[in-house]
Write a structure and sequence with these properties.
With about 210 residues, the chain is mainly beta. Helices cover about 10% and strands about 55% of the residues. It has a single domain, classed as Beta Barrel (Porin). Strands 1-2-3-4-5-6-7-9 form an eight-stranded antiparallel barrel. Strand 7 and strand 8 form a beta hairpin. The N and C termini lie far apart (about 75 Å).
Length: about 210
C-alpha cells in the first residue's frame, strides 16, 4: 500500500503540473487562484499507510486534518492519526494495542494557479497503550511529546474541494517501559479528496473607466 501511495503522489504532481501548463494555452496568462486566500478552511479524512523506522513494520492509520489560512501563504493546521493495525512487525518490538497522535502547527503554502505546495512543522502528543510484559499480559499507557514534519501538494479543482498528497515524518519516543525507552518514529503517506469553504467574504474590486465630462 505504501508503494501505491507513492505512485499516486507522483501521478498527482504530474497531472497538476500538466494542467497548469495548459491553462488557457497562453503562457503569458496569469493563473492566480481565487480558491486560496485568507479565511479558507480546509478539512479531510483518509487512510494513511505508514512505515516504522526502527522495525520496518507497515502500519495502517486513520488520519484527518483541519486547516485555516491566516493569509494567502501561511496557515494553522491540526492533524490526528489513529492507529488501526500493523503488518510484518518484529515480535520483540512494541506493538501498540491503541495509539493516537494529535498535532498542531504552522504551514507555509506556495505555488501558482490552483497548485499549492506546502511544508509544515507541528508539535503534539502521542498516546499509546502497549503490551509491557509478554508473560503476564500486562498493558500500560504512555503519553509522550511528539513532533511532525510534513510536505505535500494540493490541487484545487473547485471552490469546494481539492486533491492532495503528502508525506509526514513523525518523531516520538515511548518512555517509562520496563525494558527502556523505545523510538516510535514513522513515515506516513496520505492522499485523497479534501474539502474547503471560504469563511470570509472577498472584497470586490471596482474600476472606473474614464471620468464624466461637462
Amino acid at each position: 500500500m505504501v508503494k501505491l501511495f507513492i505512485f499516486l503522489f507522483m501521478i498527482l504532481i504530474y497531472c497538476a503540473s500538466f494542467s497548469q501548463e495548459l491553462a488557457g494555452f497562453d503562457p503569458n496568462k496569469k493563473t492566480e487562484s481565487n480558491f486560496v486566500s485568507h479565511g479558507l478552511l480546509k478539512a479531510s479524512a483518509t487512510i494513511s499507510p505508514g512505515k516504522m523506522i526502527q522495525n520496518g513494520s507497515t502500519t495502517i492509520n486513520l488520519s484527518g486534518f483541519l486547516e485555516y489560512f491566516i493569509d494567502n501563504q501561511f496557515s494553522l493546521r491540526g492533524d490526528v492519526y489513529q492507529f488501526i493495525d500493523d503488518q510484518n512487525s518484529i515480535k520483540t518490538s512494541i506493538n501498540p494495542n491503541f495509539q493516537n497522535r494529535l498535532f498542531f502547527g504552522a504551514f507555509y503554502n506556495y505555488g501558482k494557479g490552483n497548485i499549492r505546495w506546502y511544508n509544515g512543522f507541528q508539535m503534539g502528543l502521542t498516546t499509546t497503550n502497549y503490551l509491557s510484559n509478554m508473560i503476564t499480559g500486562e498493558f500500560k499507557w504512555s503519553l509522550a511529546p511528539s513532533t511532525s514534519f510534513k510536505t505535500g501538494i494540493a490541487y484545487y479543482v473547485w471552490k469546494y474541494f481539492h486533491f492532495f498528497a503528502d508525506v509526514t515524518y513523525l518523531n516520538s519516543t515511548l518512555r517509562g517501559a520496563s525494558f527502556g525507552s523505545q523510538k516510535m518514529d514513522e513515515i506516513l503517506f496520505s492522499g485523497g479528496l479534501g474539502f474547503q469553504i471560504q469563511t470570509k467574504k472577498q472584497r470586490k474590486k471596482f474600476s472606473f473607466i474614464g471620468t464624466p465630462s461637462f
